[in-house]
Amino acid sequence: MADINSNEKSKALWDEIAEDWDIKMGEHDNRYHREIIRPVTLKLLDPTKGDFILDAACGNGNFSRFMAKMGVKVTAFDYSPKMIAYAKERCRDWLGSIDFHVADATKYDELMKLKSEKLFDKAVSNMAIMDISDIEPLLMAVYALLKTGGIFVFSSIHPCFQTPDMLKFTEINDYTGESFVRSGIKTYEYITPKTHIVTALARNGKQVLHYHRPLNVILNMCFKTGFILDGIEEPIFKKSDGDAGFEWFEIPPCVIFRLRKL
Ligand SMILES: C[S@@+](CC[C@H](N)C(=O)[O-])C[C@H]1O[C@@H](n2cnc3c(N)ncnc32)[C@H](O)[C@@H]1O
After folding, report:
1. What is the Cα–Cα distance from 130 to 161, expressed in whole angstroms?
2. Cα 95 to chain centroid, rounded
3. Is 106 in the pocket of ligand 1 (CB under 6 A)?
4. What is the mean pLDDT of residues 127-132?
5. pLDDT tens digits, residue range 29-87?
6. Which of 20, 80, 86, 123 could bond 15 through an S-S bridge, CB–CB 3.0 to 4.6 Å?
7. What per-residue confidence (pLDDT) applies to 245?
8. What count of other Cβ atoms lies within 10 Å of the Cβ of residue 246?
9. Atom of ligand 1 nearest to the CA of 29
């Protein structure tokens, strides 16, 4: 059983699964990223040629590379040295446009070392907030590193639906006399922040820690830092896409926020 109170433990677990994560995401990401995270993040972030963008908790660097191909200058970091090694390998042809660093999002001083003579136009963090043990230092550092008017777009598993211990169920409804099968979610724990263990890679059952926070905790921390919220999306899979592993058609599996520094 993992020591669930330890950021170091969390880092060790990510470092341990870095190779499998890199294989899983490959060159083109998984369906989750391709169909809902990437398109909606691109809509909110609007990366534009010449932008200078920070990619926080960048994993194997796929989104950094995607932005580099659009003419964006990227600084990207992750706290797992192995993940960064895989990112550099995946992005070997784009290292002129992407500057990779090993840095811990929970350590404000480490993040401030990413500062160059130019402030960032934008910042992004895809599907990592729930993996970060303390998001306050990250929010504070991103705020300090962004230019005025700059935006921070970040996504998370949806804290209202992907709660600790949630159960997915499928039931037969014959209430109207016409029976049909439908799926839903039972949730038991929402309001109290909680660290819990999740399976990161279904293929081999490897685990990481998740830091569940209700919406008010996430957003109030953003507001306390000085950000305003000026965009939010709750993307879902399209029915025509076929099996999404679960029927995430009416219930959004993730939420994407856009913060702005005024
Ligand atoms: C679910 S993965 C997402 C990776 C990438 N953003 C993507 O969308 O493919 C979460 C990432 O967060 C990183 N991470 C978790 N806690 C972190 C921290 N405190 N500082 C930096 N990176 C962290 C992990 O190493 C992992 O690469």
Report:
1. 13
2. 22
3. yes
4. 97
5. 888 899 999 999 999 999 999 999 999 999 999 999 999 999 999 999 999 999 999 99
6. 80
7. 54
8. 13
9. 9
- Residue 42 CA to residue 39 CA, distance in Å, equals 5
Mean pLDDT of the chain: 92
The torsion angle over the Cα atoms of residues 41, 252, 206 and 62, rounded to 10 degrees, is -10
From the CA of 47, how far away is ligand 1's center (Å)? 20
The closest-lying atom of ligand 1 relative to the alpha carbon of residue 104 is 20
pLDDT for res 250: 87
C-beta separation of 167 from 138 below 8 A: no
Distance in Å, CA 74 to ligand 1 centroid: 16
Beta carbon of 78 within 6 Å of any ligand 1 atom: yes
Query: Could you give phi then psi for residue 194, rounded to 5 degrees?
Result: -150, 140
Ligand 1 proximity of 233 Cβ (cutoff 6 Å): no
Q: Determine the Cα–Cα distance for residues 143 and 149; give it in Å rounded to an integer.
A: 10
**3-class DSSP state of 254:** strand
- Give the separation between CA 103 and CA 110, rounded to whole angstroms: 6
Q: Which domains does the chain have, with CATH numbers?
A: 7-159+213-260 (3.40.50.150)
Q: Is the pTM of this model over 0.90?
A: yes
Residue reference for tokens 């990366």: 47
Contacts of residue 209, defined as CB under 8 A and 6 or more positions apart, other chains included, come to 2, 4, 9, 10, 13, 131, 133, 195, 196, 197, 198
Ligand 1 centroid from CA 128, angstroms: 5
Residue 246 pLDDT greater than 80, yes or no = no
